[in-house]
Amino acid sequence: MALLPFDDRDGFIWFDGKLVPWRDAKLHVLSHGLHYASCVFEGERAYGGEIFKCTEHSQRFKTSAELLDFVVPYSIEELDAAKREVVKANGKPDSYVRPVAWRGSEMMAVAAQNATIHVAIASWEWPSMFDPATRMKGIRLDIAEFRRPDPKTAPCRSKAAGLYMICTISKHKAERKGYADALMLDWQGRVAECTGANVFFTRDGALHTPIADCFLDGITRRTVIDLAKKRGIDVQERRIMPDELPSFNECFICGTGAEVTPVAEIGPNRFTPGNISRTLIEEYATAVRPHA
């Protein structure tokens, strides 16, 4: 099936303060954000017309920009309203929502303090990354060669475009080998995250997840932790070494795109998706849907 290009679609994109026809949302080839990765973004989902944790995403969006030394020129309230306007204008109440901010084309050098900051917001239909009908079978993960960087070498708390370069490379390599994704270690060789999702493991009825200090502390990650604790599940945020993987029973990843998805294999390690994974899939599905 032919892919539908993202530059040639019907609909609207919110661009620098107003809705424009989808195909007219363009930037110049000499934009600083393209050449020097001075760009931040968010990944969100609307369910039934309501964007899950909309304001929390807007807050992180602005914080991400500040960590890259620029300011998103809209308030959190304006961003929330713009996202809702886009979802409504595109007529798809269940959709993925992508805000993005970048430095423009006024300056083309490493330093670009006077470049205009642009903001765009798009939304489109995008089902869960992995088939819900077969979700409990679990996906297969490779182990990536690249590692998440030392927090002293990169703005790890920012959802910045440049930090995803090694994720794209790692996911491509994994998919070429028949895996769905790749598990990344951190700069010290400890378990970190996948290329676009956080990871959890279970053992003896407890959840174990890496401390998010050199990769993004995902909003979905925090949601899952809260849901687990409300269910009385012990959650341990700690350092996890790769040689611990054989000792875990279940494994799942979570993120806006992946939602909650069980894992059956990480390299030579096998897991059996079970009750904790199923419970948190169901709890998350309930949490994201608008409540009457």
What's the gist of this structure?
The chain folds into two domains: about 10-125, D-amino Acid Aminotransferase, Chain A, domain 1, CATH 3.30.470; about 130-290, D-amino Acid Aminotransferase, Chain A, domain 2 (Alpha-Beta Barrel).
Question: How would you characterize this protein structure?
Answer:
The chain has helices at 32-36, 54-67, 76-90, 165-176, 219-230, 275-288; strands spanning 12-15, 18-21, 39-41, 44-47, 50-51, 95-103, 117-124, 139-148, 181-186, 191-194, 198-203, 206-210, 235-238, 250-255, 259-266, 269-270. A hairpin with a 2-residue loop joins strand 11 and strand 12. Helix 2 packs across helix 3. The chain contains 6 helices and 16 strands. The chain has 2 domains: 12-124, D-amino Acid Aminotransferase, Chain A, domain 1 (2-Layer Sandwich), CATH 3.30.470.10; 132-288, D-amino Acid Aminotransferase, subunit A, domain 2 (D-amino Acid Aminotransferase, Chain A, domain 2, Alpha-Beta Barrel). It starts with 11 loop residues before the first strand and ends with a helix. It is globular. The protein is of the alpha+beta class and 292 residues long. Strands 8, 9, 10, 11, 12, 13, 14, 15 and 16 form a 9-stranded mixed sheet that branches. Strands 1, 2, 3, 4, 5, 6 and 7 form a 7-stranded antiparallel sheet that branches.
